[in-house]
Structure formats: structure tokens, C-alpha cells
Design goal:
The complex is a heterotrimer. Chain A has 2 domains: 15-156, Rossmann fold (3-Layer(aba) Sandwich); 228-381, Rossmann fold. In chain A, 51% of the residues lie in helices and 12% in strands. Chain A is built from 15 helices and 8 strands. Chain A has helices at 2-16, 18-29, 43-48, 65-69, 76-86, 106-115, 135-154, 160-186, 193-205, 208-221, 248-256, 283-292, 308-318, 333-348, 365-381, and strands at residues 33-36, 52-55, 95-99, 120-124, 234-240, 259-266, 323-329, 353-358. The chains are: A alpha/beta, B alpha/beta, C alpha/beta. Chains in contact: A-C, B-C. At the A-C interface, helix 6, helix 7 and helix 14 of A face helix 6, helix 7 and helix 14 of C.
Amino acid sequence: MRDANEVISIFTDIKADPVKYLQSLKDVSGKKIIGCMPMYLPEEMIYASGMHPTYVPGRAERITLGSKHLQQFFCGYARAVVDAALKGDLDFLDGMLFQDTCHTLRPVFDIIAANHPYSFMRRINMPVVLSRPQAKPFFTQELRLLKRDLEGFAGKEISEKELKEAIYVYNENRELLKKIYTLRRSRPELIRAREMVSIVFASMIMPKTDHNLLLRKLLASISERTPPLKDQRIRVVLTGSLCEEPLDYLLDLIEELGGIVVDDDLFTGSRYFLNTVPLLTDPVESLVSAYINMGLPCPTRINGNRKLGKYVLDLARRSKADAIIIVMVKFCEAHDYAYPQMKQFFEEAKMPHLVLKTQHESTSIEQIKTRLQAFFELQRGR
Amino acid sequence: MFVAGIDLGSAWVKAIMLDEKLQIVGKAAIQTGPSSQKAGEKCFSELLRKCGLKKKGVSFILSTGYGRKALPVSHAEMTEIACHAKGARKLFPDAATVIDIGGQDSKVIALDEQGFPSNFVMNDKCAAGCGRFLEVMARVLEVELQEMGPLSLASGKEVSISSMCTVFAESEVISLIANNCNREDIARAIHRAIALRVSIMVEQIGAKERIVMTGGVARNIGVVKELEQTLGKRIFVPSEPEFVGALGAAIFALERSIKM
Amino acid sequence: MEEKVSYRRVKSVGLIKDIVRGFYEGVIDAKRHGRKVCWCVGASPYEVFRAMEIGHFQTENWAVAVTARGLERPMIEEAEKAGFSSDICSYASINIGYALLLKKGRVPEDLSPELRVPEPDFVFTINTCPSMAQWAMTLSEIFNVPFFAVDVPLFYDDKDELHYQRNILYVMEQLRDAISLIETITRAPYRWDRLKEILAIIKETAKVRQKLFELWCHKPSAITYWDMAIALGAANLFRGTEESLHYFRKIYEEVKERIEKGIFSIPKERCRLLWYMNHPWFKVGYLSRFFADLDAVVVGGQYVIGPYSDPEKIDPNRPLWTIAEEHPTRPYVRTMRYKIEKFLKALATAFQVDGVIFHSPRTCRPNSWTHFDEGEILKREMGLPYLIIEADHSDPKFYSEAEVDNRLQAFVEMVIERKEACSLRE
């Protein structure tokens, strides 16, 4: 039981200060660190090259430089990353890798490249329209060229064996995280929402082998843990916040007011590990296939019809959730387009749902509290 | 020859009369009230009276400020950016940065070596950190506006006001008073909040010295000191900072009348 | 007050009104005569549809027509009621709002007859701006019709020729698939011969527009950014028609005559400006007069130059390559350095400007990218002052006259003061 709490506090510490962790990882291991901007980048390839891939954390307290280079109507994450980079807070990075997630993150590359470039600044094109037959060969070529450039920077070839090994380690991480999530579905009182986000967030920051080790320890001991949650009645599924973690106080509020998170469709949640990479003969093709055949409906991609609403609803039903909470980050245009369809879908299915709008500098805690309170009171009345 | 510059601000209208040698012949200032035009005309009449002149004795009238387009009697209008820069440069020939905090808006202007504006930042979206903000705060603290500066200098303790909005900051101050926080410390916190807001604008332009502050709020020694501390640089304030815009307008009026 | 200066618009640009009306009436006609109708989101290859007589229009161009007539409000409100945030592209809000109203049979009474476009049979988009695919998908869901999105990759390497070729081929292959879809939907073989003809007209028009560009650079200006903004539709949606060719010839003749006779856009040109990125469509007339009153002229900008401006790159015998290669001429898929060289420095030099205005539209991030950095680099490398203003391209609620006009005026005053003091010293 002590083990579970220990492991979880390691994860929450990393989430509280990922920069500190990454800096010390660099000092200790001497590895080159490549920042991977959201989303779907082939981290396995970077891992196989002997470098360390990491999510780029962006919770700057007071954005100053970031708002100089990007207007206020660019999302907080974009401005926070620019802010952190230009202030030198991300200098543990040796490089950054971008794909074209959306038109808010696209200029972040140019700004950092012009003002505070790391040694390896690279973009790749990842097809948006996944069903196009040309998407696969195009992306395969992009990945092979990326592999060549990563090898050049890492100073060594990435062998097929190493890449397969990387995929194996990453898939193991995915399986372990799936196990934790399955456990939470049946025993949600065992893990607080902010703790679960830390577990996944830590995976995005740590070397996967280390994270796997800790996850196995956690799985072995979590059932004996004294549940930190009790008396929470309303089962909730979280979705949204496409490129960063939802605020801790928001997650805490949900629990304080009587909700309990049983599952999620978050970026720093299930979306990070649900996409298992198939094991094909050519590992580059494995990575291509994982992306092109991604089953996860995504607001930034066109993969079949947008069934994000149905996907989240199915997720909610499978977890026997009472309600869905949508965390909407202001100025996330991709999410803005996805929401109306989701809203209609939930309404037709009579699934109660609540939108909590967050804005980097000025999210009003009071407003969120009031809305959650009112929402939960309604649910209790049912 | 005489020329006039009129600065129609949101709170006050200020006017200056210059002769052809750029000497100040007279000044006038009245509160704007609900009508910029009426206040502008009244201020100009007052200016004429003080200078012992008739309207036809004035060769050129140039207006600036929020209500500058509303004054039929003026011959031309220019923005406060141009006029504050002009006025500040006249008073301090080596001015390189001009910070103007008015009733409802604030601006920072960078001047190049020749004294011409080369860049500017304006904050006219929100009145927090401007004269209006200070008026509201002075009322809550139950002190006269002109007492705020000296009061804050007597502060011994640092207290924080986190809200960026006038309305919410007012609530914060009220609860500080309720918690027996003393007025000196609160006044200083208010000034620091203003200085912080302004410093963000200055950061965008760069604080090249000599830094000159204009506008009514520059009379508040507390704000000036906090801003000096935040920027880490000395700030120079002319003796009548609220007239700098009108002075600049009058100088432009002289230039225009010479060209005619 | 001093006497106001007047702005002399190029008269023939106004003829676009007839082209607009004729074009949109044609779309309504197509539906009436049982032909297919396609809504195109984004800068699409309209000639591909025209070759098959498919009724088509660009949703953005349509939204501009709506906002220029001041009729956008009910559509934006409808979109917001359906849950679409007011932060999304205002073109999209207007268009999606209309789609929702059309579906309900509640199109606003005061909407001009020709703008009452019919429901689509399919939706098409080219994804130069990452939001377009989402917008197109939304429309296809509202009308329950198929949609086809062409992926346009980012040209992120300015030096690698292979990268460039690969990207073009990727787009080209997708266009080929789009044509197959068109054949399926229309149940007819594709009219490559017609496409060739249309491209030939576009090439002719490009030659005229190239000559016009040379006149456009004339100092003092005989034609301005605002004139070309009004004419933009003819280079864009209405291209490849005899009318648009004729239209540009007329404009060319008029501008040539103006220069010969010494009739310029503003009487006293004390300040020449470059406009960067899109502009508030509902303020075109207002801004042309506003600047004229300050003795300033906004000469030109990349947004109103329009596609297919280089006749050398238009090969009617290689239609898909030509169409595919048109896309990397747009700033949205290029690097910042490319944009600075091609769309800022080159144009600032060609138009001989004294300053640059960067327009940051509140609801459009692509048009707002890296303005601060581009401005600083421009200032450093060319010594040109710049101003960034925040407004919007088609939602008037984001244009605050007090803010925008004040800044524009202050900037013009600043540019003129320095310029004239410099010349005094020389």
C-alpha cells in the first residue's frame, strides 16, 4: 500500500515541476532531449535513436514574452510554450519536433526558430485527411526522411531492431496504462482524478522503461491502497483540453462537489495510450499504420466521419458514467468546431453534459465552482 | 502670432496658447463632463480670456485627445501619440521613452534620436491602471486623490492586489480595509498594480532613457516611484504633466501655421 | 477644420457587381436546371468544377458579399445558438449560420436574392488553412452530403527541391481523386478539354494582371489596395471566364489612362503603406477615405494580388500540376522567412512604401501568424516601421473604431513626421 502512494507521489512531483525533472534527467543521463509538440508524433523513433522524447510542458504562471509574439487570441498553451522557450526555461531541450496540429501551434515553430532555436528544429507533415489513399505513402516518406535526420543529429543509425524494441517498450507502457484505466473504471475511488492525470503526464515526460517499472509497482499495490475518495456519487467522464493537462483545481473541485472521474478522453489521459502500434515487418510502416489507421476520432483530423460525440458517449456508457464534463480551452478552434456536433449527440442520447471553459490567464474558479455545483445538484435530483 | 493646442481628454480638457517663439502665453483646464465639444469650446474661451485675446487673433488651433474630432473651432487634429511625443521632447530634448497615463487610457511611445516617435503601444481596451482607477481607489480609501501619492510613501509593508480589473480590485481593497490593513500599504499596493500594468506595456517597446512621464497620473509621486522601481530606471516628470499633450498640439499648430 | 481630401476610386473595379450577381445567379440556376451544386471551402480549384458546369462558389467569397452588405448578423447569431463559439473564423460563422437557417427554411428576408445559394450536393475543400477541413465537414453533416478534402502539406523546407516536388505531387494525386469523385457524382466523363480552355483564359488574364501590377507600382498611385480588394473576386472565384478577362483589361486601360493624365488616387501622397494579411471587408470604402484624409495611401498587399498571378506557371496542357502548384504561392503553407522575403520585403520594395500595416484578424489565426516577429525583422532588415492592428475580416463587432482608427492615425502621423523631417535634412 505504501508502494502505491510512493509511486503516485513520484508522478505528481514530476507533473508539478516537469522542467526540473527533465533538467536532472539530462544531467544524469547525458541524453539529448527532443521536445515533441502535440500530437501523435512518432516518439518511438526518437527513443530508438538513443535520444529522449518528451512532451513540451507549458504552464507558465505569467505569460509576458509569449503574448508579445502571439496575440491574445492564440491559446494559452501556444503562448506558454513560446514564453518558456524564449525565457530559457526549456534549455534542457536539444531540439523540438512539430507536426501540423492546428493553425495555433504552427507559428510556435517559426517564433522559436527565429528567437531561441535549439540545435534540432524540425517539422514533419502528418496527413490530416487520413482516409486519402495517398496519405500512407506520403507519410511513410516523411517518416523515412525524419529517421534520416534524427540519425544525423543523434550521430548514430537507428536499426530496425532498435526501432522494433522501442515500439515494444512503448506498447508495453500503453498496455500498463490501459490496465490502470480498467481498474479505475471498476474502482474509481482508488485514484483521484489529478493523480490519474499525473500518471499519464509522467509517461509523457519520463523514459518509458522507468515509467513501466513504476507502473508495474503501482499495479501490484494499488488495490490495497486506502481509497482517497469516498461518498462521491456522480460518475463523470472527462473529455477535451486537447493539448495540455486540465487544471488540478478543476479536477479537485469535481471531487469536492461530489463527482468522481471514472474514465476520460483527455490528451493527458486515455488518448495518449489507446493507440497501440501494430508489429509489422518494417517498423517504420508500423508507425505509419498506427497513425493512418488511428481509431481515435480527433478534432484536428479527418478520419472517417467525425464521430467524436459517439466515441465519447460510448466511452461514458461503458464506464457507466452519469455525466460528461467537457473541458474547453478558449481559442482552441479545432475543439470549437467539434463541440456543436457533440452537444447535439449528447442531447439526443439524453446524456447530461457540462462545458467548463478555461482560459490560461483568467479562468474564474468561482464561475467553474458555481457551474459544477449547479450541474451536480441537477444530477443528484435525477 | 498666437497658436493654440487643445487636448480633449476623457476626464479633463486642457489648452495652451503659444506665441511664435514657442513661449507659453496662457493655460486653461476644465473638466470634460458629458460633452467633449461643449467642454472644448468652454476651455478655449477660458484660454482666450486668460491671454486677453480674441479668437481671430489665434492663427491656428490644433486639437488632440479622445474628443479631438468634436471641436469645430479647431483647424486640424492629431493623435495624442504625436502630441505627447512632441510636447515631451520639447520639455526634455533627450526624451527617448514617453509614458502617458491618462484618465481612461495609457500609452508608451518610443522616440528615435531625432525625437520622432518610432513605435508605440496603447492600452485603450480597459481603464484599469489609469486615472479613473485611481479615483475609484481614492474614494474607497476615503482620501483625496492628490493625497494618494504622499500616503503611499509612508507604507511600511508590502500588500498585494491581484486583480487586473478596476471593479474586482475595488472589492479586494474593501476586504483589505476590512481586514485592518492600513491605508498607506493599500495605497502603495494600488500604485504597484498600476506600475506593473504599465511596465508590461513598456516591456513591449523597451525602456530607453531618458524616460519621461506625462498625463495627470504622473502627479502621483507614489505611482512614479513604483514605476521607477519596477523598471529599475529614473523617470522624469515635467512640472505640469497633464498639459504635455496640449503643448505638443500647440507646437504642431505653430508648424502648420508657418507652412500655410 | 481643413478641407477634407477626397479619394479617387478606380471606376471600373465597380463593374465586379455585375460579375458577382451573374455568377451567383448561375449557381441558383444550376440547381434549378438539375445540375449539381458544390460548396467550396477555402481557395479551391474552381475551374475544375466549372469545366463540368457544376454550380459552385467559394464560401468565403460568399461571406464577404454578405458582410459587405451588412447582412451577417443573423447568420452569426444562428451559428452561436447552435453552439459554435464566436472565436471561430467569422467567414465560417456566417456560412454555417446560413446553412443552419437554410436547412430550417428560415433564410433572412433581407438577404439579396442572388446570395440565397441552394443546398449543396457535395462539399469540397482544400486544407491550406487547418480549419477548413473541419468547416467543410460541419457543412457536410448539416446537409448530410459527401465531402472531399484535399490535404495541403506545409512547405516547411525552402531549400529542398525534392520536398517541394513531393508536396506538389501529393496535392496533385488528391486532385485526381477529386475528379474521379466529380465523375461519379455527375455520372459523366470529365471534360479535360474544357478545363484546358479555362486555364488558357486564366493564363491570358494573368498576362493582363502582370502588366497591371507594373502600373500598380507606379508612384504616385493610380490604383490602390482597396481598388484591388474589390477586384479580387475576379482573380479568385470568377477567374477563367471571358468576363473576368475583360474586367481586368478594363481596369488596366483605366489605370494606364489615369497615369497618362496625371489622375492619381489621392491628391497629396505623403505616405505610402503596405497592408499585410487580410483586411476588414466591411470597411473597404471607409478605410480608403480614412487614409486619404491623412494624405496616406495604402498602395498594395499580398492578400489582394490573388492567385495565378504568374502566367509562366500556368500550363493548360498540365492542368493538375498547374492547379497543384498554385498552392505554395499562398503564405499559409510557407515558412516565416519565405513570407518575409516574398510577401513583405519584395512588395515593400516594389510598391516603394514608407511603412507596413499588419492586420491581425481576431477570428483568423493563420492571417495573424508571427506578426510581431515579421515586423521586427522587417524593421531590422529594411528599416521600415510597422503597426499591428487587431480587427477582423468579416465580423464588425471585432472592429473597434476608437482603437483601430486611433492607432492607424498615430502611425501615419509618425511615418509622415519622420519621412518629412528626413527629407528636410537632406
